[in-house]
Structures are given as structure tokens and as C-alpha cells.
User: What shape does this take?
Amino acid sequence: MLLIDCPHCGPRAELEFSYGHEAHIERPKDPDALSDSDWAAYLFLRENPKGVILERWVHSHGCRRWFNVARDTVSYEILAVYPMGAEPPKLEQARYV
Amino acid sequence: MAQTTAETSPQAQSPAPAARQPFRLRDGGRVDRSRLVSFRFDERELTGHPGDTLASALLANGVHLVGRSFKYHRPRGIVSAGAEEPNALVQVGRDPRTEPNIRATQLELFDGLSVSSQNRWPNLEFDVGGVNNLLSRFLPAGFYYKTFMWPAAAWETYEKAIRQAAGLGVSPSKRDPDAYDKTFAHCDLLVVGAGPTGLSAALTAARAGARVILAEQDFLLGGDLLSDRSAAIDGRPALEWLAEAEAELRSLDNVRILTRTICFAAFDHNFFGLHERVSDHLPFAERGDGRPRHRLWKLRTRQAIFATGAIERPLVFRDNDRPGIMLASAARSYLNRWGVMAGSNAVVFTGNESGYATALDLHQAGVRVAAVVDLRAEAEGPLSEEAKAAGLRILAGHAVIGTEGDKRVKKVRVGRLGSDGASIWGGGEEIACDLLVNSAGWSPTVHLHCQAKGSLVWDEAHACFLPDKAMQKGQATVGAAAGAFGLASCLAGGEAAGRAAAEALGLAPRAPARRLEAEDRDFLPMRQLYCVPSDKPLGQGGKHFIDQQNDVTAADLLLALREGYRSIEHVKRYTTTGMGTDQGKLGNVNAIGVVAEHLKLPLPEVGVTTFRAPYTPVSFGAFAGRDVDALLDPVRTTPMHSWHERNGALFEDVGQWRRAWYYPKEGEDLRRAVSREVKATRDSLGILDATTLGKIEIVGPDAAELLNRVYTNAWSKLEVGRCRYGLMLKEDGMVMDDGVTSRLDETRFLMTTTTGNAASVLAHLEEWLQTEWPELKVYLTSVTEQFATMTLSGPNARRLLGELCDLDLSNEAFPHMSWQPGRVAGVPARIFRISFTGELSYEINVPAGQGLYVWQTLFRHGEKYGITPYGTEAMHVLRAEKGFIIVGQETDGSVTPLDLSMDWIVSKKKDFIGRRSLSRTDIQKPDRAQLVGLLTQDPALVLPEGGALVETMREETPVPMLGHVTSSYWSPNCGRSIALALVKGGRGRLGKTVICALDGGKTAPCTVVEPLFFDKEGERLRG
Ligand SMILES: [Zn+2]
Assistant: This one.
């Protein structure tokens, strides 16, 4: 069980949170301008990296606030927690063979 | 928990057992000889002493045969003295407090303990299943897979027979009467294992001020020190150091020592699962008093040190599974810790120095050591020299090539080993014995390190896997678990790890005045053979067991390889090696070695199978804790719940809510009661408790804009005082929820959601507001529980409400789809004129605390109209008659508003969540499943909900599916059955016939109709 450092409440156990999948996927401003396949990509296609993933979490059983997390999908180490709307921090991508 | 007399009476009635324990030494060890402990093993009354395990007590009584093996029903004995035990699994206690597969090697003896052996019938000495052993050449690896896979339908029959013939132990037949606990804990440092390494680490960190939890699976601290009669620390017996270390740790406030506690799992971010056996060691009469049987610790720590030691690895030789054959270290433990001789005439079989430690201790204790059979060409090493000096017979460059003896080993055959390690010279010499101890080397207990995704590295010199890099921060594996096998290395490694942990915690550990003095003896030099050859080819004339618990032999592994399996994970699953309750703690490295040799690969290239939690089995009770029965899940009830109970309601669970389902009167079944409730509502007046519907207050200048974006229809122009039905989609265009939302004032709306989706709709709105539209000024508040909601429905609804409320309820003053504040029975209320039944309806919201009062007042005044409470079932029938959908019943996450023919509510003028998806090509296809009504050709027949629909019946299968029935009821108002269904291209099939498949091969032809069965013009709700 991860230990997630909620920016508003401090470190709490994962079971207080809900997962929000990949971060920084903005809703298209003009959906009609997208082809079916581009729209499907927005809807369904997500990164699944072996290494750092930028993802969203919400403190469902706490402050109910959304925030972003940079997490290594191999070590599960949380490398950064940063607010919604902020640019992701510059992180070194761990190398996994 | 009260002790039942049934558990004590057999004990009380039997004569006092004999005090005789013929294999107990006169002195030595950690048992209290001044007290006797009586226990029962199958039909035998035996005794041991406090400090014994079941295994040590059995051996003290000369009992070696403790079970039959899983597949071949071969007689089996005690192999180990710890968690790795594959054979000595017993059934403890009587039903319902009975538990199977308990390791006798870890079961603490207590007065009144009653155990039975497992996997034998009719009894341990004579077992019918033993015939499997004679048939064994017909039971190779993968036998069950190969034989019983065809025909598939017969598997159920086979499986029953197999389970009866196999099986390890029996489950309780009734519910568990014991209590279990769960607890959370936090600490600075978790130390797993209280051997010399763990004690040294815990002491160092604790002295620096760290909050330490020390977890030890045993009931004593000390680890291997307890089994070593010669170990010395600082020139004194090691046990003196142990006593001082324990006393110091117990004196420190910042240290918690958990004995009888196995750290069974390492999870992410230094989160651990620990299983504490709180009262299993107590006589039944002393248990209870609110104490749980087991406790599950969910522990988060900042630093963790795994000082989990090592497990001795057995040699794989022909017929290595007879009772009386055990690990060298186990025999040594029984001798030194428990004062028990595991035999009187021993043969030691070893490829390293560990065997000699046991040989010397046995010899010194007066056990005859008939021979030390050493795989090494020369017996070299400090202990070998001592053994030579003691005059022991050493057969270097030899191997045990076979054993004899049915229920106990009687003799071994020893042959000269070829220098290649793969051949035997000559037929061998027979040596009589009643104990054969063996050692191939040691396997560090790397389980926690590996569960935490740490990597391993192969140590060729010691032929074992060592922890390499820890994946998670703040974790260290030290001592024998890290391949430092000597005592001095363990003490120093523990000290260093404890200091490193303290420093990482920001503490300042004091440097030790000096290092503790101790011997640093390894078990090298060694000669590693993963499979000891015999004078016949492998698999002939006997069996080389790799995994005794699952009866897997070296020949089975080779068969799997011959059949084309290569990955060790596949070989494991095909042969089931390492898949017993012991998870291959003894056998896995040998299995990997055999596979590597056969494939001519370096062993590390074969790799290891995944280490999975739990390290040893954990009771289900510990995971459940107190979360059983009423505490399993919170139950939500409405303010009117007590009234429903008093008035005979039956309830159904909707999420966590308990809702009135229907209110049967004397002699009524579901259908009759529901028919009465439905008729009464349409004919005069019904009342429904609708409190559970989700209610969200949406407040702020951008409230209407938020609704515009989350609902398919438009909201900006909704006037204050009006209500509107809304449909909410996910971005993929699928229906997510529906409900009526009302404008309370310019910047304030009240949204209702379905009962089951209240929480997820709130979360959905919050997510979009916070992550995509932070510029919108809107607050959301769940107010579901602040209001009691009751729905008056039926032609007399206005009349009754008019009696208790001063509002003008006329159509003109209070039209359909509007709301007004007012008082009902003197209580402030919001009254919504909305309808889910198709009747004239008022939904009355009052403060929750006054809900019961208002309900009862309505009821009293409504008696003259025959007011009838109706439950969720009648509500479902009423809305189905009108063709109103229920989200989650007519929809399943793959249904769009277009599929529901609800295009009328989908705005073309604005964007909303899910809109773009509705124009995707797939969503536009005409053969999508669409909502229709079904009328059975036999009007009395009510279709099964979920029933499969097809176009035509035909012999050949599969018959293409057209869809399924989503809702189906007897409709008293239509005088016939009605159903809703999702049918491929349904709207194009109006008037056509589809066929519903029924149980028993029957079918029901149905006509496809519009999904609306009653009051098609909708006059009643505006009446
Ligand atoms: Zn929070």
C-alpha cells in the first residue's frame, strides 16, 4: 500500500485515495474538430511506461482534493506531488532494461 | 469466548498419561522438565513439557510417522524444526475450532492440545490411499491435467473424486467461534527476526532512540542461538548474551517485541503485514477474556531490517522421504533446544560442514553416529577435523544411494560417488540406522526482500541466492539472510544495519565500545549436488523427492522438460513443485538446480519463481478481524425505517442502503403484495420512502453552467421553481446517471441522483470541476441524509396533501415539473411535483429528523383514501409500465441515450460531457442494442430478467444473440406481463417476434413493441 503525501493533509495510506489515471490529458477545446480516431485516442489511449508516470490522485476519504503525482511504475517510488494545472517537475527517467 | 465442555472432557476422562518420554535427554534445552503437558495425537495420549512444540514432543515420545503424503500416500515424518516444514502438517482441535495444515514444528504444546494426522484413511498406520504409491508410475507429473481434461463436462465428477482422495485436512463445518483483531501500527524501524542479527540491529537502533518493533515468529527470542550448544559471545555462553539483550530490549519504552508473530508480507512503501498468534498456545480454559485468537498488524515503518536467517537445504537422494530422515540442523535443534534425540542410531549425509556440527552434537549427547557420508572428495574443514578427532566414521566421496524402512528409516545404502558427481561405483554398503540427517547447504530467507521487489544474485561458492539491490528505500537484509553465516558476521552486520537505520532516521547512534567477540564459522567448503545419483537411472527403483508436500520428484521435473516446458514458472505449475502450503521453502533451489543441469544452463539463468506473500499461511479470521456480521459493512437506514419494520416490510439492499422492498400482508407472496401496492397507487394513493435518492446541492454563479456541461440537455433557462429531468453521460457517451434537478434560486440547484450512484456522481462532478474547469465558481454539497423524502403518488395525492399543506396545489398554481417551499403537517418542506410512476405525484422533502412524524401524519390522514405504502418492487413495476428506465438495469455502461430513444433530451446546441462520442461511427450503427418493450405471446408468462433473446431457434450452436431482457414484471394495470429489453436493431423490429430462451430448453416467443405500456398519452400525471 502506497504512502501518498497529500498536499493538503500530509502522508496518508493509499486506501484513503482514489486513482485518476494519467495526468495532463486536457479535454479538447473543440471536440468537433477531432477525427473519430483522435477523439478515441483522447478517450482511451494512455501511456503505460516502465518508469516515471505522471498521474492523478484524489484524496477521496480526506480533503477530496485532486492533485498530480510522479511515480515510478517499477519501484513505485513517488518522486513528486504537485497541484492540478501545474507543469510537471523535471525528473530523471530511471532506466530499466 | 466460553470454553465448551466438549473440548476438555475427553482429556478429563482419560487416565493420567505416562510421564515417559524415552527420547528426552535428562537435561539441557529450553523446556521446563518440572511440568508435564498432556496432549493427544490421533488416539494416543502423550506428554511433553512447556517449551515444546508438537514436533519436539512427538519426537521425545519416539513418534516419527506423522502423516501421509499428498499424492502417493507415503508415510512421512518430521523434516524440519521450523516454518519450512513440508510434511508434519496436522489437524488441530475439534469442529468448529478445528484447523488443518498446522505445522507441528511451530505448534506450541499446551495442556489439552488434540491433533490428528492428515491425509490418511482409515488411519495413519494402515492407509488405503497408499495404493497410489504402488500405482505411481501411472501418476506422473501433469497426470491430472492430462487425464481429466476431456470431456470438459465430466471435470466436475472427476474433481469430486480427486478432492476426496487428495486433500490436506478438513475445514470446520460451522462458523468460527473465535474473535480476531486487526490493528494499524507505525514505527521508525521494523526488525524481522530475533536471532543474533536482529537482536543486535534492534539494540543498536533502540539505544539511539528509534521506535523499534521487533517481530519474531517463534515464541522465544534467539533464533539459531537456541539450537547451538557451543556458541559463545565475548567468551561466555551465547545464551547469557541473549538473556541480557532481551532484558535490555524489554526495558526500553521505544521497543515493542512481538513474539509468535510472522511478518508474512512486504507491500509498497515499507508497509508490512504481520500475523500474531495471540492465544493459540494457551490451554482452552485460559483463552478468551476478550483476547483475540490472532491479530493482523498492518504496519508502516520508515526503515526495515530483514534478519530472517537461512533455511537448510535438504539433499535430493533416492527415497529421501521416509520418517526418520530430517535436516541436519533440525536434529541439532531438537537435541540442543528441546533436549530430544531424534533417534538412537544416526547416519549423517552432508556435502558441507553443517552436517558435522550435528554429528558432533549427537555424538556428544550419546547418540550413536554410525557414519558421516560426505559428498566431498575429502572431509575438510574445522568441524570435519573435530569429527575425525572424535573417531567418527567418515565416508568421504560417498553418497546415500537409497534407503529402506516403511514407517521409519531402517537402513541406508551408501555408494562411492564418481568424481563427476553423476555416477555411483558399485552397489553400495548397507548401514543400519533409525535417523538419517542431511544437509546440502543453506538458503537465505530472502522472501521479504523479494516480495518488496528486491533483486537476487547467485552466490556460486555457497550455492545460494543472496539479496542484491533493494527496490524500496529504507530496507536492508542482513545476517544469514544476506549470506553472512558466521555468528560474528551476524552480530556485526546487525549492528551496522541498526546504526545505518538510525542514521537514516536522523538519530545519532553511539559507536560501540568494541565489537562483540564470537566465532565466525561458515559451512564451507561444500560440494553441491542438486540430485544425488543412485545405482539406477533416475525414477527407477525409488523416488528422489524435490517437494515432499506436493510429492514432486526430480523425475517429474525431467518429464516436464522432456515435454517441452522451459520456463521455471511453467515447470513449477506443471509439476506443482513449490506450490504447497510451504511454497517450496526446502525444494525450490533444488528444483531450479535440477532444471539448470538438465538444460545445461548456469543456474541463475533459469531464475527463480516469484516470491509471493504470505510467507506462511495466515488465517482468514485475521484478515476479517471484527469486520463480520453487522460490522462487515455499514447499513444505512432512512428516518422512516422503524415504521417500515413495524409494518412488516421486507427489505432489499441497494448499495449500503436498506430499502423497503414490499409490505406483504397475511398470506401474500411477492407477486400478490406488489400487485396490490401497484393497483392501490394507480387507483387511489400510494406512498414511497424515497429518502435514499442522492441529493447534491449545487451552489454558485456558475451552477447552471456546470449543469449545462454535465447533462445532455440545457439548463440556463430553467426558471427558479422549476424542475427538469437530466441525463448524465461519461465522456465515452454512455449513460452514467439520471435524475431530476430543480432550481432553488438563481445560483442554487438541487440535483437528485439514483440511490446507488450518489457518491460516484458527486465524485464525477468534483473531478471535472477541480481538474478541467477550475474557473467555474461552484460548490457541491451532498445533502442526501439531511432530508427525509416521501413520495405521494396516485389520483388522491393532491387531496391528501391539500389537507396538510396551505399551498394552492392546482395545476395552474403548481404544475407538473415544478417545486415550492411550504409546510407539510406544520413542518417546513420542499414539495416537488415530479413523477416516476406516471401518476400525479408529490415528492415531499422535510428535515430528516421530522421525517417519521410527517410520514405518520400523512399516513393517518391518508387512511380514508386507502393510502398504501409501496416498496421498491412496486416502484419498479409502476415505472416499467411507463417505460421509464432505471440506470444500471436498462443500462450497463454500454448504452447511449440514442440506444434508449432518448434523442429528445440530447441538445444539439451546446457541448456536454460525452457529446462528441455520440457521433462516433460505432455509436451510429443501426444494429446497436436498442431499448424496446416485449410482450410475451402467452400474457401470463413473466420472462426471466437477463433472459437471452434470439431470432430463431436452431439445432446448431451457437445461436446468435439478439440481446437480453432488462426488466420483467407482472403488470396488474395491464393485466399481463410486460418486459423491457435491449435488442440489436430493436427499433427496426417493432411488431416482429423474438424468442426468449427459458430454463430447461423451453422458449417464449415475444412481440417487440414500443417501451410504453400504460397511459400512453401521459394524461394521468398532469391530472
Ligand atoms: Zn488530503
